[in-house]
Amino acid sequence: MASGGSPVVGVMQNVRFAVTPAPTLPGASPTLGQAATPADLKQQVMTWSKVVEVAEREIERKSKETQTLKARLRSVEWEALSRAREVSTLTDKVKEVELKLAEKETQVKTILGGLDIRETQERSLDSLITLAIEDKVSWEKKYRSAANELELKTQYLDDKEQFWCGEVEQLEAELTRRDEQIGSLKMQLLEIRKMQESGSLAAFGRQSAALKERSSLISGQTDLAKKLQDANKKSQQQRHQIESLESQLDESRAQNGVFTSALIPILEDSGLFLQTSNAVEITESLKALFDSLMAELRLSGKDRNKSITTKAAKELIAIKEKTLESQQKQTKLLKELEFTTREAEKLTRRIMDDEDERKEEGNESPAELVKGSSIGELPIPLSESDDELLRRDRSATLIQSRFRGHLAQKKYKEMFEVQTAASRVIQKHYRRHQDSESERTEKRAITTIQAGARKWKANREVKQKRTEEANVLKGELMERAAKTLQRHERARQTRKKFKEIKEVREEKAVMIQKHFRSRKAKEDLEKRRSDAPRVEDFGIFCNDQTLTAGSLIRACGRPSNGTTLCMFQWTRRDQVTGKMCDIPGETTPEYVLSPDDVGRVVGVRCTPTNDKDECGLPATDVVNNGSPIEISDEVKKEITNLASKGTVTYHTQLVKFGKSSIPTQVTVTLDKKMVTVTKKEKVLLKMKWETLPRVDLAPQIPTLLMLCATQGGADRGAKDVHLNFRERQERDDCAVLVRHFSALAANRPKSGFLSSLSQKLRGSKKDK
User: What are the record's GO terms for cellular component (predicted)?
Assistant: First the structure.
């Protein structure tokens, strides 16, 4: 910065200059009409070499795509091989099911071969046959489901093989088409730079699609593994079910044996029902027994005629219910037998008592009879005729009693014979019914077993044919898999070598590109600096020897390189961040320093532009060689006067005080302790320096000062006080004084207990 007059011819304002275009320099770049220099030819050769390198990279990328397509083909072959393995595992499972069916059939044959004529064994065999038939039906269903699943799997594999064959053909066609494209790309090296971005994007999309397809194939393999695990779990569950069914068969056999062993003696001892005295009651009881047996036979026949669709669990429940019913019937029969035996015993006792009495009466003599009849009476003399008559009467009564006993025994024998004959007839009919039912069940079991055996043989033949075909297909697939593995290994080795070569070439290319870009950036920056508009000999000038608040400073320079317009912006250094911040509204070449600039560094920034609205590098400068603006001599005198006198007085106008905005004339007094605002010797406001009052200036009104307390301890309304001074210089001096004393108060140590204690501690530390 220079003092006195400005050395520059004129000050540059925000106006456009009429500048003539500069002539072409000898070192400038050649135009289209001029001949090319060796440097340009060298640069063209370098660009063409880069184009060739890009073409080679494109060819390498296309070869990579062909390799990815080949890898997809190999993955398809691997999937077909895995499908064949799955088919083989399913056939093994079907064989296991067939073996289990054969075991069950052998069990049924052994059960049928060991059938006896006895009723106990027939009943046990009936239950075993029904369970075996149900088990056979369930295994047949499982076998059918397994066969259907195998057929579906084979059909799916056939469809998949056809689909992948079509895919392979499409991939081969794609490979041929890509080879043709590579040949065409070799002939079109000049257009590769324009198509580079689109080609790289397409390659990236194809690579992403190939990766997605590979992930889907891997997920399919995992799903197949999960299905195999599920099939193994199901086979284990079936084994557990078979073991549980065998245990249930053993339990049902034991229960049937107990039932038959308890029922046989009851049927053999059924003749005790015939020991009743009344023939009518016996016949009625026999009829009721016969009806109940016939009803049971009908119910059992109906139950057997029903279709066997229940499982082993339901059959066990039915057997338990039947055993409970049989136990209830046994208890009822036992009670009836006990009742009949008691009645028969009573009848026999009565008959025996009657016979004994009659025997005793027949053995007594006539004299004893006369004595017995005449006890306590006088003896009556009897004649011979009376004795004869009495003897005859007694003999007649004895004969009649004996005859009645004979008739009773005869009737008892007849009733017993009738009861035994009826029981034999009932037992005969029941046995005949059991024989017919057993024959029917045997015939049904034989027919079902024969049908199942024929079906099993037919399915076995079909499976053998399918296994032979699968083995042939498996051999072919193994050969193809070996070939694909070898090709994959060769391709992997070639890819590894190509990757190493590519990494080396890429590293070299990156280094070359890095150096080329840095060199090009430097050249562009130098060219931009040389061609851009700029301002030369830029600086800040002032007529005052010392810069204070109110000094006028001016920024100017000499435009060059077609500069037609300069934009100015004055800046001020922030005390917190230390950066230069723009002063709002100050965009002219001249600037008047304000009290806000006291103690700070002020600078300016000038941005040149040309007719094409192109901006050049901004020119900057700082006032007073980067030193802050000092306080003026007048303010220093007032500070010394205030120190000697103790007060400084300003007569101003109070524009706003709190909520009131009525302008009034007041007196502002500054002393060493506070700021006082009075009106006609009436104090309106007292603001101590300890409250750290803040001063704000309005650039729109050069004489306005806004005063505000930042801490407590001030009066009401001290947060919003606006003072309007008569002159700007007076306002600036007052603002500088207020800021000076508030800064002193802020830096002054506090007089409290804690502050004194801290000062003592600091002094002791310094002494140490």
Answer: plasma membrane
